[in-house]
From TrEMBL:
<dbReference type="GO" id="GO:0019905">
    <property type="term" value="F:syntaxin binding"/>
</dbReference>
<dbReference type="InterPro" id="IPR011990">
    <property type="entry name" value="TPR-like_helical_dom_sf"/>
</dbReference>
<dbReference type="InterPro" id="IPR019734">
    <property type="entry name" value="TPR_rpt"/>
</dbReference>
<dbReference type="InterPro" id="IPR000744">
    <property type="entry name" value="NSF_attach"/>
</dbReference>
<dbReference type="GO" id="GO:0031201">
    <property type="term" value="C:SNARE complex"/>
</dbReference>
<dbReference type="GO" id="GO:0005774">
    <property type="term" value="C:vacuolar membrane"/>
</dbReference>
<keyword id="KW-0931">ER-Golgi transport</keyword>
<dbReference type="GO" id="GO:0016192">
    <property type="term" value="P:vesicle-mediated transport"/>
</dbReference>
<protein>
    <recommendedName>
        <fullName>Gamma-soluble NSF attachment protein</fullName>
    </recommendedName>
</protein>
<keyword id="KW-0472">Membrane</keyword>
<dbReference type="GO" id="GO:0006886">
    <property type="term" value="P:intracellular protein transport"/>
</dbReference>
<dbReference type="Pfam" id="PF14938">
    <property type="entry name" value="SNAP"/>
</dbReference>
<keyword id="KW-0813">Transport</keyword>
<comment type="similarity">
    <text>Belongs to the SNAP family.</text>
</comment>
<keyword id="KW-0653">Protein transport</keyword>
<dbReference type="GO" id="GO:0005483">
    <property type="term" value="F:soluble NSF attachment protein activity"/>
</dbReference>
């Protein structure tokens, strides 16, 4: 009967992959099975460092067998084990490698999912890296024309940016979500994303950027005719008039209640900052016209 001692399994597998005078070709198929058994046994015993190495070797063996799908699965397992160890750099690395292997198989959905798993594992400890992984996961889906599947990933990235108080980045991600929604005719998601971006700018006390965002988004017919647009118009007017009570009344509306939780939380805290400066601003042009001298 085969030994179930993971150390022995590893040793046997290693021997099968090394060429000797009597073994002229490596037996990757047998080795792959042994590495996998060892990895699972180590993980069960909570010997995570050894399990991680075994999964890496199992992945390599599957690559040598031209089986990137199985290699990717083992890489994901290595990522999960690295999370148990708190090796955050390795977590990102393993899930990226898994993602690349899925792309080799021509499978964008699992490739994106692998990055999203890595992102979720890193959200609490390395949020900047998590956002990066979410964004890469979105790009993979978009390149394959599967924008609709990226919506939740964009929202997850925006939520992290809001937690990090990186409001311009959060708004930018929401605008990207709006564009993705536009590409697949998901009008409701699109309009909610645009209103979300406007609210984020207002929360960050950047009225000028909120107004610019509103004007830019209003160039898009779907948004121009939406409830979200009418709401944004009323909200910006209340800001321009410095009408705090009206702002507080508006943010309790059902239009806000239908937005994502992270945006609802920000909206219900409006207005932030001092509105008195807005009155002075609202009478002026947004930008001074350029002199001809400025162009030379």
């Amino acid at each position: 009967m085969a030994s179930s001692d993971p150390e022995k399994l590893m040793s046997k597998a290693d021997k099968l992959t090394k060429l000797t005078l009597t073994r002229w070709s490596a037996d990757w198929r047998s080795a792959a099975g042994l590495y996998e058994q060892a990895a699972n046994a180590f993980r069960l015993a909570k010997e995570y460092e050894k399990a991680k190495l075994a999964f890496e070797k199992a992945s390599k063996a599957q690559e040598m067998l031209s089986s990137p799908w199985d290699a990717a699965k083992h890489m994901e397992s290595a990522g999960a084990v690295a999370k148990e160890l708190g090796n955050w750099n390795e977590v990102a690395d393993f899930y990226r490698r898994a993602s690349n292997l899925y792309i080799e198989c021509g499978r964008s959905q699992p490739a994106s999912d692998a990055l999203a798993k890595g992102a979720r594992a890193l959200e609490e400890t390395v949020p900047d890296e998590a956002v990066q992984l979410y964004t890469e996961a979105c790009s993979i889906l978009e390149e394959d024309g599967k924008e609709q599947m990226a919506f939740d990933l964009y929202r997850a990235a925006a939520t992290i940016y809001i937690k990090l108080e990186k409001y311009p980045d959060a708004a930018t991600i929401l605008l990207r979500l709006g564009l993705a929604a536009d590409n697949c005719k998901a009008v409701n998601s699109q309009c909610k994303a645009y209103l979300g971006a406007i609210i984020v700018y207002l929360y960050a006390q950047d009225f000028k950027q909120a107004e610019k965002c509103y004007n830019d988004c209003s160039q898009i017919d779907a948004f121009l005719r939406s409830d979200q647009n009418r709401f944004a118009s009323k909200l910006l007017s209340a800001y321009t008039e410095g009408d705090i009570e009206e702002i507080k009344r508006l943010v309790q509306s059902s239009t806000v209640s239908n937005l994502d939780h992270m945006i609802i939380r920000l909206a219900r805290k409006l207005p932030t900052g001092d509105l008195s400066a807005l009155k002075a601003y609202s009478g002026k042009e947004q930008e001074e016209p350029l002199d001809e001298d400025d162009l030379t």
